[in-house]
Amino acid sequence: MKSDIEIAQHALLLPVHDIAARVGIKEDEIELYGKFKAKVSLNLLSRLKNRDSGKLIMVTAITPTAFGEGKTTVSVGLAMGLCKLGKNAIVALREPSLGPCFGIKGGAAGGGYAQVLPMEDINLHFTGDIHAVSTAHNLLSALIDNHIHQGNELGLDQREIVWKRAVDMNERALRKIVVGLGGRSNGFPREDGFLISVASEVMAILGLSKDVTDLKERIGRIVVGYTRGGEPVFSRDLKADGAMTVLLKDAVKPNLVQTVENTPAFVHCGPFANIAHGTNSVLSTQMALKLSDYAITETGFGSDLGGEKFLDFVAPIAGFKIDVIVVVASVRALKLHGGASERGLREKGTTKHLENGLPNLGKHIENMRKFGVPLVIATNRFSDDSEDELDLVARYCEEKKVKHAVFEGHSRGSAGAAELSEKVISVASDCPSNYHPLYEFGLPLKEKIEVVATEIYGADGVDYTARAQSRLKRIESLGFGNLPVCCAKTPRSLSDNSKWYGVPKDYRITIQDVHLSAGAGFVVPIAGDIMLMPGLPKKPAAEGINISTDGRITGLF
To answer: What average pLDDT does range 234-242 have in this prediction?
Structure first.
C-alpha cells in the first residue's frame, strides 16, 4: 500500500472556494491561503445564528499506545462515509504540533485514504496559527522581564513568576533554563523554562474563545505571577492583552481544508489533552454544526482525558449538546492492556492477551455512559488483525449492549467507513441523547477532582501533596474555585502511573501540584509526572523526512 504522503500527493484536490461553496460558505467569508487552504470569517456565525444546528458526534478512544489508535483517521473516515451515504457532514480537527511530527507519533492529519489535505501543509506550518500562539506567548514573557527590568512597578515577586516561554518543538534541554545572564543591561538572572507551544494557555484560550472580544478578555485574565504580598498579577496589568490579541487576529479564524474525497474539514487549534482540554476550537465546531447535518469532532487521547474534558466543561461552556459518542479501539492496544509485549503483538493463534485487555474497553464504555450519550464502538482495523480477533471485540461489545463496527477507512476510504457511518446514523436517529456533565462548576475544587478521579479513572480516592493543598487554598481564596477542573495526567493509563495498563484497581490518585489557567477558564490539578516540554526519541521521525530537488517531500506521516 502507498504511504500516507504518497496518497496525499496523488489525491485530486478541489480549489478550496469550491469546498466552501459546497457547504454554503460565501466567497466573501473566506480568505485564501493559496489554492487549497482558507481562513473562514467569524461573520459566518453571525449570518447563520438562527439556523438549526446539526448533530454533534464526539470521537474519543480507549487508553492509547504511544503511536495512537487512529482517532483522527476514524473521524475523517466517518465524515467521508456519511457524505457517501448522502448526508452533509463536516469533520473538525485539531492542528498538528511540530513536536510530535518530528518526534515519534508523526502528524495528525489522519492516514491512508482517510486523511485531510494538503497533508504536508497541515502537518508543517499550515496557516501560521501555532506560530502566532508562540509569538503572543513569548511577547508576554518579554513584557514580564522588561517590566521587572524597568523598575517592577507592580511588585512582581521574581520567585513567583509562573509564565514560561514557548516553542513548538520537542526540546528537553529547554525545560529548565536561566535567563538574564550577562550583566545589568540584560535584566535580572532568574530560573525559567520553555513549554511546547500547544501546551501554552494561549492555545487553550484560542480554542475556547467565542469571538475576538472574548479572546482579548481571556488573554487579559492570564495570571503571570504573584506579588510579594501574594496578589495575582494579570496580563492586562502589564497592558499585554491588546498586542497579544492583535497577534492572534487571524489565528482565531478557523481553517477550511478537505479530505482525500473532498469532504469539507475544519482544522483549527491544537491544545494537548493531557494538560489542557484537547479539542479543536469552539468556533470551528460551531461552524461545522451550522453548516452540516453531522459535525464530527475529535478529542485527544482516551475518554479519560480529552473525552471527559469535552463533556464536563468544553461542551457546557460552548453550549454544545452531544448526540453520539464514538469510542475508537484497536486490537493492538487491547493486547498491550492485556499483558502483551510490543514484540508479541503479532503473535498468532492465541487471543489470550486480547481477552485480558478487553476490560479496558469496558471501562471506557462505562465512563462514557455516565454522561447520558449513546455510544458506538469503532474497531480501527490494522493489516495484521485477524478475523477471530475482530469477532472477539464484536462479541464483547454485544455483551455490553453497545453498537460496534469495524473501521477500514485507512485502506478503503469512505467504503471502509460505511458500516460505522450507518451505525452512527441509526444511533443518532433512534437513541435520544440525555447528555449531562458529571459535576456542577459550583462544587468545591476538591469535590470536582474527586468526581473525575473516582468516576472516570476508577481511583479509590485522591491524595494531595502539601504544595497542591496550598495552591488549591490560594486559588479558592482568589475567587477561582468555581472554575472547572482540567486534570493533567499520563495518557498511557487510566491511573496516574504510565506503567499501569488495563484497568488499575485499588489505588489512589496523587495530586502533585495545581496550576491556575484563569484566562482559559479552568484549574489544572497535576497527577503524577507531566512533561510540558517533550523530548525527542532515540530515532526521531525527523531523521526520515526529506525533500527532493523537484520539491517533493518524503517521510512525513
So the answer is: 98
The structure's pTM equals 0.95
Rounded Cα gap, residues 108 and 542, in angstroms: 15
Average pLDDT, the chain: 94
The helix or strand, by DSSP H or E, that contains position 365, with its residue range, turns out to be helix 352-369
Per the DSSP assignment, residues forming a β-bridge with 225 are 161, 233
How much is the average pLDDT of 159-183? 95
109 and 40 assigned to the same domain: yes
CA 99, CA 370: separation in Å to the nearest integer? 34
441 phi and psi, to 5 degrees? Answer: -60, -30
Residues 91 and 40 in one domain: yes
- Alpha-carbon span 153 to 366, nearest angstrom: 53
Other CB atoms within 10 A of residue 557 CB:
18
What is the three-state SS of 383-416? CCCCHHHHHHHHHHHHHCCCEEEEECHHHHHHHH
- The string of pLDDT tens digits covering residues 377-418 is 999 999 889 999 999 999 999 999 999 999 999 999 999 999
Name the β-bridge partners of 167: 196
Cβ-proximal residues to 262 (8 Å cutoff; 6+ apart), any chain:
12, 13, 14, 19
Structural domain span for residue 285: 4-127+251-430
Q: Residues 22, 288: contact at Cβ < 8 Å? A: no
Q: Are 291 and 178 found together in one domain?
A: no
411 and 329 within one domain: yes
Strands in 154-286 per DSSP E = 156-161, 165-167, 177-179, 190-192, 194-196, 223-227, 232-234, 255-259, 264-267
Q: Is-cis flag, bond preceding 189, omega within 30?
A: no
Check if the beta carbon of residue 254 is closer than 8 Å to that of residue 40: yes
Residue 2 reports pLDDT greater than 90: no
- Of the candidates 14, 525, 20, 431, the one whose C-alpha atom is nearest the C-alpha of residue 262 is 14
What is the per-residue DSSP string for 404-467?
Answer: EEEE-HHHHGGGGGHHHHHHHHHHHHHS------SS-TTS-HHHHHHHIIIIII--S-EEE-HH
User: Cell numbers of 107, please?
Assistant: 502528524
Among 37-41, 305-309, 342-346, 464-468, which is the least confidently predicted range?
342-346
Computed over its alpha carbons, how large is the radius of gyration of the chain? 23
In a domain, 435, yes or no: no
- Euclidean distance between the first and the last CA atom of the chain, given in angstroms as a whole number: 14
**Pair type for strands 462-464 and 509-517:** parallel
CA angle 520, 304, 68 (to 5 degrees): 100
Condensed to tens digits (0 to 9), the pLDDT of residues 332-373 reads: 999 999 998 877 676 676 789 999 999 999 999 999 999 999
Fill in the DSSP letter of residue 209: -
